[in-house]
């Protein structure tokens, strides 16, 4: 199933994409989003074709399912924190801190995407201001910040 060339049938495919995303095991959490939300895996067409087992929904089993779902959410939080820490360490190992002295010339890159006519990126030369952080600068062609 694909979106057509004119990309006008995406709304017909969206439910299938959503189901695929919600039932795919996420690397960060180790669980599917559907499982973390509902405490059980989503039913597929194959599940509806198999015989139904009424013992799955007695009071004792529902309590176990709820407890298992909460344990899974806690485990997903731990996995997410580990993944964030791994990403932070990877970023920190490659990142180099840059500092600017007042008066240094810097390039500022701005991506504008609000409309098709404004999609060009803007690159300007700025001069850093006395006492400024790397995020505060002055346009060389104006007196405004």
TrEMBL record:
One GO MF term: nucleic acid binding
InterPro entries: Retrovirus_Pol_polyprotein (IPR050951), RNaseH_sf (IPR036397)
Name recorded for this polypeptide: Retrovirus-related Pol polyprotein from transposon 412
Record organism: Trichonephila clavipes
Source taxonomy: Eukaryota, Metazoa, Ecdysozoa, Arthropoda, Chelicerata
């Amino acid at each position: 199933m694909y979106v057509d060339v004119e990309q006008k049938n995406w709304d017909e495919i969206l439910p299938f994409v959503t189901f695929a995303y919600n039932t795919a095991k996420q690397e960060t959490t180790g669980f599917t989003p559907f499982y973390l939300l509902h405490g059980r895996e989503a039913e597929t067409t194959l599940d509806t074709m198999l015989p139904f087992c009424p013992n799955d929904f007695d009071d004792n089993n529902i309590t176990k399912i709820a407890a298992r779902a909460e344990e899974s959410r806690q485990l997903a939080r731990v996995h997410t924190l580990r993944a964030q820490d791994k990403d932070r360490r990877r970023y920190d190992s490659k990142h180099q801190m840059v500092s600017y002295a007042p008066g240094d010339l810097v390039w500022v890159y701005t991506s504008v995407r609000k409309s098709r006519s404004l999609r060009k990126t803007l690159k300007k030369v700025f001069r850093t201001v006395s006492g400024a952080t790397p995020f505060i600068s002055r346009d060389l062609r104006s007196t405004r910040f």
